[in-house]
Every structure is written in C-alpha cells, then in structure tokens.
Amino acid sequence: MNALTASAAIASGRVLLANVRQRSLVEAKVRALVVAGFILFFGFAALARIAQLGFFEGSPERRSLAEALLPPRGEITDRNGVPLARAFPAYALWYNPKAFGENGTPLVKSPEEVAKALVAIFPDADYNDLLRRLKSDKPSYLRQRVMPEDANRIFALGEPALEFPRENQRYYPQGSLGAHVLGYVDSEGHGHVGMEQVLEKQLLDPARRGKPVALSIDMRAQGALEDELGRGMLETEAKGAAGIVLDVDTGEIVALASLPSFNPNRSDQALNNLVFNKVTNQVYELGSTFKPLSIAAAIDAGVVTDLSVRYPSDKPLAIGGFHIRDSHSFGASLNVPEALIHSSNIVTAQVADKLGGPGLKKTMAALGMNERPYIELPARGFPLWPRGTNKNGDWARITTMTVSYGHGIAVTPLHLAAAYAAMVNGGIWRPATLFKREPTQIPEGRRVYKASTSARMRQLLRMIVVDGTGKSANASGYRVGGKTGSAEKPGGKGGYNRTSLVATFAAAFPMDKPRYVVIAMLDEPKGTAATSYQRTAAWNAAPIVGRVVPRIGPFLGVVPDDTRDIDISDLSPLVGNGDGE
Q: Domain range for residue 481?
C-alpha cells in the first residue's frame, strides 16, 4: 500500500468514527428527553393528585400515638380492677373451600381425616360439626381463637384450605365466671346479652374506649357464689340455680349468678339457651320469703303493734271456697314472731287480711314488684302482678292473703333482693346497679318502711335463723338473718305441681348493722342423701347461704365476731323453738 492509499483509508476511518459519535450523541439526547418527559409526566400527575386531595378530599386524618395504641374494644373490669373482658390479637381458623380455585378439591385429605385431626388438636371440638363444615362449599370459621402452637400443628397437616387470619378477639380471662353479667361478643364484633351489649357504644368509642369500665362485681364474691350454688345444684340434682349478693346501702350488685352458665370465650356455645338469666329475666313465685315483707307492711301501718298477740293456727283458713294451710300443725295459736319462725301461711294471711289489700298492694308496688327490675342488663322479666277486682284495681281478699306468703305474685330474684335491702337498711328502696358507685353517686331512693319497722324486722329475721327455719344459714360470727321459701311451681289448669319446688333463702348480714343481702335459689331441687331427702329451702338453699357468707365476708369488710349480735332479748320470751320450712 502506498502513502496515498494509506492516507485515504485513515481519513475514511475518521469520518466513520465521527458519524458513530454523532449518532450516539443523538441517541443519548433522545433518551434524556424521554426520561425527562416521564419525570415531568409523573411529577405533574403527583402534583395533580396532591391538589385533588387538598382541594376536594381534605387533609388526611391525623392519629396520635396514644390513639393508635387504643384497644379495638374497651376493657371491662370488676370493682377492684380485675380484668373481666379485654381485646387481644389472635389467630382464627378459617376454612376456605376455594383454596384451589372454583373447580379444585378444597382438601388434600378426606374431610373425615381432617376433622379427626382437628379434634385431636382441639379435644373440645365437635367432630360432626367440623365434618359438616368441611364438606360444605361455604367458607366459615372452624375456630375463632387459636394459640400459635396449635396453629403450627394445623399448618403441619398440609391443608391450604385451612387458613389463619389474624384478628382482634374478645377474651374473658375468668372464663365462665360472671358470664351472665358480661354477655359475649360475636364473630362480627357485636356485644350480646350482658354488659357487652349495654356498653357497646362506649366500648367502641375512640374517645372513651381507652378507659376501662369498672363494674360493681367483686370477682372473689362472684366465684364463691357460683361455686356454692353449683355445689347445691349437684347435691340436690336441681335443674338450675340463681343467686345474688347486693349492697344494702348503695344498690351495687357484688355478685350475680345464674346456673347452668356458659363460656363467653365460646360464642358458638353462647348462642344456646344457657344465656338465659334466672336472676333478672325469670319470674318465680318465691313463697314464704314474702312473709317478712308483708309483716313489715303491717307493722309499718300500725296494724301489728303488739307482737305477743296470738292468732288461731290449728285449722285451715277458709276464704271463699279456698283453704289456706300450713305444711304441718304448729299448735292452736301463734304470735307474729312464732309465725315467722315456723313459717305459718295461716297466721301471715290473717295479718295481711287485717292490713287490707290496698295497704299490701301499696307496699309491694313501692318495692318495685309491679314493674321490671331496675338493672342495666337488657333481659329483665316483667312480674306477674295480680289483677284488681274493681275499677280501683283493688285486690280480692283471697289475693291479698295469698300474696302475703308469696303465692299469686311472681317476681325475679333481683326484685326480692332489692326488697330485702329496703327492709333491713332503714327502710329505703334503691335501684340495683352493675356499675361501681362512688359515694356521691348513690341515689336517694324512696322510703318504703319506717326506720323503726326496719329495726324490728332485723330482730325478727335474726330470730328465724337462730330458732327457726333458717338455722342452716347461721354462719358463726356473721349474725345472719333471713327467711326460707319453698314454693310449688304453677302447674296445669290453674293449680300447682306438688313435685316441683322453687327453694329460696333470702338473707342479710350482719343483722346488727346490715351490709349485704344474699339470695340463693334452687330450681326444682330433689330430696337426696345430702339433704336428708328433704326438698325444702331449710335443707338446701339455707345451707348455701351459710357457706357463702363466711367466704365473702372477710374481703367485703365484714369480720366475724362471736362477741357481737343484734339484741333480741325483748322478743325471745315470746317464742318457743320449732321448725317449719
């Protein structure tokens, strides 16, 4: 190659290199313009969205750290701050039949195998119910509260259709204790039956759900009451039981139990008839527990001024074709203290007859016996209130007599508790409450009995426990006073079923300065070896109170003292010993 040729080749290479450089610069500029265009586009889009939010949708909600930490549902505690209901994050077990698509088989193993495996993990689960759900093409909860270790065991089954959504659950640390007071929360987060339903708005309100709601319940008293009622049910083979502990001065309910109970942690179980509250929603003829209320009305009205006056008691009392009888003969005559000690229907009816229907009816109405019980719970039974016989609504003579000893009128155990509180606290009736009350929040109430009448009734109630039908409730050092009641349940054709009783003991303690009313009731108890084959309240309900009082007294501020008692020396000479109900 000569010099001219070499020079031409070099010049040609330089031209090509220049052209490559030029094309690269052009491509770089185009790319930069494209990128800049995208940046401008997205920048304008972002600015437009910001403008839209600012001008049309307002500013985003601001939440403080404290608000972000609030529980999804407020906490409920007892009067001492013990947690009764709280929210916490947990796993649920969800069955998703579409896990493999619309046409896929939802389970790797057979439904029977999976159901059997789940029962092995959850022994309390219902195999047939699980099998039904696993064979269904509808998604559903198989379990609403699953511990992490159980979730791991389910995961090991290798079933993609079994899912574990993380949810906020309602947890009741005390289990079934106080279930009828609390109620439960369903899978949708709604409260039912008890205070969960009553407090629904407050527990979900962001402004209030951060502060726990304190109830009047004391879980120590609640546990003792449920335990002893449950023991009484087992000993007597009763179909149910109910009980209440009520502060006589404030109206606060310290314990409230209805058995059989339910576990609010299992909302599927809570949906059955166990949620029915026998204390506030079921009305009963409570029998002879009404006798002190009627005698107090007669003393208050001045009808009974001399407790030594005797009334004939040896023959049934015939009124308009009806005959009022006692369980057995107590002798030719009884005075009022003896009538209460022996639980005489005949004498109580005669005293009520002297008082008259209007007087007894007025007292019963003042005690709230003609309206639903005063309590925050949604389930409140309406009493069976006797009808009048004229335009003034006056009771017939026989009605007045039967009501005086607790027949022909049906109320809830809560009605009875509030009435006994008024009878022993100086004569003031106050509405019951499940909220803890400060001293400044105690309602004034209404006067039903004179203070002097209340003082006399405290003596008489104490005598019933010392010398009469309530001996089994006589807890040493606690000065218990009270009255038994054994009422036959209404049967067909307007009569009574002699084989079905409601056995009740209504009590207060200590009688020298009453603090609490205690009611224990057994529904259809049977005579068993534990009760010497007796079915009446003296043998089954009174012993329950006798065991409850020593258990709850010390932590409720009532210390046993065998050196103290209410003075009944002016009444003791009027009575002899005996037993009745």
A: 222-574
